[in-house]
Amino acid sequence: MLILYDELYGKFEADGVLLELIQSDPVQRLKGIYQGGASRFVNENWNTTRYDHSVGAMMLVNRLGGSLEEQIAALLHDVSHTAFSHVIDYVLGQKEENYHEMIYEQIVTQSSIPSILKSAGLNWRDILLDESQWTLLEQQAPHLCADRVDYTLRDLYVCGEITLQEVHAFLDQLVVFNGQMACSNLSAAEWFVDAYYKEVIGFFMNPLNMFGNHQLTETIKLALQKDILSIEDFLKQDDDVIGLLKNAGDSSVEGMLSALFNSKVQKGTASCYDVHQTTKMRWVDPLVISSDGATPVSQLSLTAKRVIKDAKQRIEKGVYLNIQAPL
Description:
By secondary structure, this protein is mainly α.
């Protein structure tokens, strides 16, 4: 048995197939894949890993009474993420940011995961290739799900934007209604709406974060053009790929990496900017439980409705950046 402790969810006892999966190479690799892409290169505190998030999603599914199979799906839902997470989507022009989903079956097939599940009497295809059956783990926007809730709470807590007390207060109001996550009262739903847009606009769309992902994207594009990197290299960990870039002996790549690590970035305007960055539309409208069933918070709260509308407009607008490269 392995005792895991997570500040968000507390203690978790992993044994059997979950323990084997946690200790497997595909899951351990996620300790070197950072959630925010280039984030940690521009701010050392933005350092949540895909491992942290995957284990957290598993714990959250468990907390809400999800089956062993759904916990397995939660633990493994990100095993196909490449180095730098969604940066590869920007490199390849994948607007839906779903490259890891496109290669998921291939990555799992070539790993130890099928044999681990088979030894436990489980069929990996039944568990991992039909994500729609796991309604706690994944939901289309704007609904809550373990994936969306965990990365929001985790990133904001690590960044100091929310307190552990706030996290626990929200989790205490998170319930399951007809197999789907919902909030047991209005204030919890309003709080999460506000938190989610701190995540999307304050973190994902932070000018420094947007610059980091843009600069790393352009660096990788150049390295691919020069055959310094191959797509297969992105199945390694972040630092492995950075090592390949640093050791390539290419002055152009070295200069772009220097700019990534040392540039100063300010928010620009539509009439004065160096780079305009946009991101995938991300939004939430949590369900609130009442005597009448479950109702989206935007239909119950003018404040939440206004926050959602404003956030969607800001996401559509994107971010304008002014960049001062190192001398």
